[in-house]
Amino acid sequence: MSKKQEPVAPSKREQTPDGKKPGFFARFTEFKDYLVLSRAELRKVSWPNWKETRSTSLVVLGFVVVMAILLGVVDFILSGLMRLILS
After folding, report:
1. Tally of structural domains, the chain
2. Which domain holds residue 66?
C-alpha cells in the first residue's frame, strides 16, 4: 500500500529568484518571522488559572507517589524471589 503524499512547499531558504542560497540577513528575517508567529500563537493559548494549576499538580504528585510505592513493592517482591531462587 502506498500513501498519497501531498506536495511539500519548499522553504524560503531553498529557493531564491537567482538560485543562490540566502545570506545572513535573510536567515535573520526568517528567525524574526518565527518569533512573531510564536508570540501570536502564545496569545491564543488558554492559560490555566492558579486553582487549576494547583489541582492538576496535586493529581500528578499523587499519581507519582502511588506509582513509586507500587514499584517499590514490586521491586521488593521480585528481589526476595530472586534471593530465594539463587540461594
Report:
1. 1
2. 24-86
Residue 8 and residue 17 in contact, taking contact as beta carbons nearer than 8 Å: no
**What span, in angstroms and rounded, lies between the C-alpha atoms of 52 and 37?**
27
What global pTM score does this model have? 0.52
Q: Has residue 10 been placed in a domain?
A: no
- For the residues of 34-61, what is the DSSP string, one character each? HHHHHHHHHHHS----HHHHHHHHHHHH
Q: Are 34 and 42 in contact (CB under 8 A)?
A: no
Any domain includes 4: no
Print pLDDT tens along the chain (87 aa): 556 666 655 555 555 666 667 677 778 888 899 999 999 999 999 999 999 999 999 999 999 999 999 999 999 999 999 999 998
Cα separation, 36 vs 30, in Å, equals 10
